[in-house]
Amino acid sequence: MPSRCPVCGAEVIKPEGEAMHRCTNTACPAQALEKIKHFVSRGAMDIEGVGEKLCLALFEKGLVKDAADLYYLNREQLLQMERMADKSVTNILNSIAASKDRPLPRVIFALGITHIGGETADLLAEYFSSVDELARTTQEQLRDIPSIGPTIAESIVAFFRQEQNRQIIEKLRKAGVKLKVNEIKKKDLPFAGLEFVITGKLESSTRPEAEVRIKALGGKAGSDVTRKTSYLVVGADPGSKVARAEALGIEKLNEEQFLDMLKKAEGKP
DNA sequence: GAGCCTCGAGATCT
DNA sequence: CTCGAGGCTC
């Protein structure tokens, strides 16, 4: 006996080697709804205040047929909804607007491409700097990326071939959703203008690793203490740099202080 | 104040 | 995933 999708009644197949049954009817309303729920969910666009129930209600009312429709909701439409008063509407509109500049990996994940989870989305964002670039890629190019195989490559290309998906992306673009990497200006990074010099051995990581983190935050990693040095990071068995820093009156950091500073700057409290 | 919904933390599993 | 807390509506 074939199993059937509980929503649309279409016959459901169980792909070889996969645990889940999957309804293959692309017009299945349950699929559309799931995609919207996925789009607003935490790891994706993370639209606060919009959860399962609201997605369902908006979908049933026909106000939101696909994820991009969320960005076109207005006050009056939201006020029609059950248990929705001014306060909620304001909050929801604000959080929808705030989701427009989510980082690229999240946007890629939010699209809901089959087989693309958070990890793969992160990976793709390292190789493609916009959704459009990803949309233009070929299976061959994708397969050159380590840990991307034929299944994922095929799935991505198929996704962007679908007219429906292309339209959603256009709607997102028109609504002002950022579809490319945030090119953060160097000047705005937390370590802009700071130069760190490391002496001695670090417990927590190797020196190159620490330098990568400093640079990612817009700082410089120097090798000699000069008047331009902002901080001297002092690890175990430090060298003569300590004396030089003291002579120049340069602030010293122990490893713990340094790690603290990195974490704060990286926004991970 | 009651009830609904969503969030975030922490436990659990992979 | 499940739980409890907190926001919001009514």
Number of strands: 6
- The value of Rg in angstroms is 25 Å
Order of neighbouring strands in the sheet with most strands: 4-3-5-6
Q: Could you say which overall geometry the principal axes of the C-alpha atoms support?
A: elongated
- Overall pLDDT confidence: 90
Number of helices: 13
Q: For the record, give the distance between the C-alpha atoms at the N and C termini, rounded to a whole number.
A: 54 Å
- The helix/strand series, from N terminus to C terminus, equals EEHHHHHHHHHHEHEEHEH
Structural class determined from secondary elements: alpha/beta
Strand content: 5-15%
Low-confidence stretches: none
Largest sheet: 4 strands, parallel
Helix fraction by DSSP (H/I, runs of at least 4): 40-55%
Give a topology summary.
Layout: E1 12-13, E2 22-23, H1 29-40, H2 52-60, H3 75-79, H4 86-98, H5 104-110, H6 118-127, H7 131-136, H8 139-143, H9 150-161, H10 163-175, E3 195-199, H11 207-216, E4 220-222, E5 231-234, H12 241-248, E6 251-254, H13 255-266
Parallel strand pairs: 3-4, 3-5, 5-6
Antiparallel strand pairs: 1-2
Helix pairs in contact: 5-6
The structure holds a DNA duplex (14 and 10 nucleotides).
Summarize the structure.
This protein is of the alpha/beta class and 269 residues long.
Describe the structure.
It is a single chain. By secondary structure, the protein is of the alpha/beta class. The chain has helices at 29-40, 52-60, 75-79, 86-98, 104-110, 118-127, 131-136, 139-143, 150-161, 163-175, 207-216, 241-248, 255-266, and strands spanning 12-13, 22-23, 195-199, 220-222, 231-234, 251-254. The strands form two sheets. The chain has a four-stranded parallel β-sheet. A two-stranded antiparallel ribbon has the order 1-2. It binds a DNA duplex (14 and 10 nucleotides) through helix 2 and helix 4.
